[in-house]
Amino acid sequence: MGSITTTTTTTTPGIGKISTRPALIPADVPALGAIGRAAFGYSSRLLFPNAEPSDPSTQQDEVRWRGARLVARVKNGNVAFVAVTTEPSAENGQDQEVIVGVAQWKVPAKHEAKWKELWNTEWDEAGKIPPSMDITKFDELMGIIAREEKKILDEQGLGEDLQTLAAHPDYKRRGIGTTLLQWGIDQAKADKANVFLTATAEGKHLYERQGFVQLAEYDVGGYPHFGMMWFYRSEGEPAN
Ligand SMILES: CC(C)(COP(=O)(O)OP(=O)(O)OC[C@H]1O[C@@H](n2cnc3c(N)ncnc32)[C@H](O)[C@@H]1OP(=O)(O)O)[C@@H](O)C(=O)NCCC(=O)NCCS
């Protein structure tokens, strides 16, 4: 995983230069939580039934909780955390960097120390469940996903594992999802590892386009989810 602390930059029509860089906690956390809330609207409706549309503080509670959840994973495990950002330009009308996409990857333990060093910081919100949230529903839905994931991982063995991937809705269909996914595939190739993920219906095509295959389909709170894997092959090895 040679490039974890570096930034790579490409040019994207309409938004100018986009960069891929490690997400740096705590400064990035509110933006990452906000992307989670904006991108996963269906889960907001399921998990935050008590949020008041007219009360912005309940929305902020959700943003904080989503950010804290990502941080908790960094603190508790070997996780790599990548952001896609835009650079300020006349083309996009921005005067500062904006985080437009995020992915979090579970990576082999050999990388753990490096990532922990990057994010060696305190974030005490992690355990706090906002009053607008239905924690019973959350446990129920996460239980379904964990059970289905375990079935596949028991069979396939552990590879690198995508834990979240989202592009801000205002920046969809500009290659941000593909950039975040490619980052993880590049690391998996370097580690000679397979990649596992749970896809939403919206994300499924992105993963199929990059060679992931569907191993399971199941319902989570009325929404289809897909267990998918990308299998590492050395260069020159046939696809099947
Ligand atoms: C799924 C998701 C991550 C895709 O992100 P994205 O940034 O829009 O993805 P990309 O832009 O890389 O690819 C999406 C499509 O845009 C196309 N595209 C990429 N760059 C483009 C450009 N510059 N101009 C036009 N189209 C473009 C891609 O070819 C792709 O098309 P296809 O699906 O027909 O093949 C995003 O919609 C999202 O966050 N959804 C909600 C959260 C979610 O479901 N996440 C997945 C969890 S597993």
Number of strands: 8
CATH topology: Aminopeptidase
Report, as a whole number of angstroms, the end-to-end distance.
26 Å
Total domain units: 1
SSE order: EEHHHEEHHEHEHEE
Specify the number of helices: 7
Low-confidence stretches: none
CATH superfamily: Gcn5-related N-acetyltransferase (GNAT)
CATH architecture: 3-Layer(aba) Sandwich
**What is bound: which ligands?**
coenzyme A
Structural class: alpha+beta
Query: Strand portion, in percent?
Result: 15-25%
Evaluate the radius of gyration. 18 Å
Describe the structure.
This protein is an alpha+beta fold and 240 residues long. It has one domain: 3-Layer(aba) Sandwich (Aminopeptidase), CATH 3.40.630. 39% of the residues lie in helices and 25% in strands. The protein is built from seven helices and eight strands, in the order E-E-H-H-H-E-E-H-H-E-H-E-H-E-E. It has helices spanning 29-39, 41-47, 56-76, 112-118, 135-156, 176-191, 201-209, and strands at 8-12, 16-22, 79-86, 98-106, 160-167, 195-200, 213-220, 223-230. It has an eight-stranded mixed β-sheet, with helices on both faces. Helix 1 packs across helix 3 (56-76). The model has no long low-confidence stretch (mean pLDDT 87). The structure holds coenzyme A (COA). Coenzyme A is lined by residues 12-13, 39-40, 165-167, 172-178, 199-200, 202-203, 205-206, 209. GO terms for molecular function: acyltransferase activity, transferring groups other than amino-acyl groups. InterPro entries: Acyl_CoA_acyltransferase, GNAT_dom, Trichothecene_AcTrans.
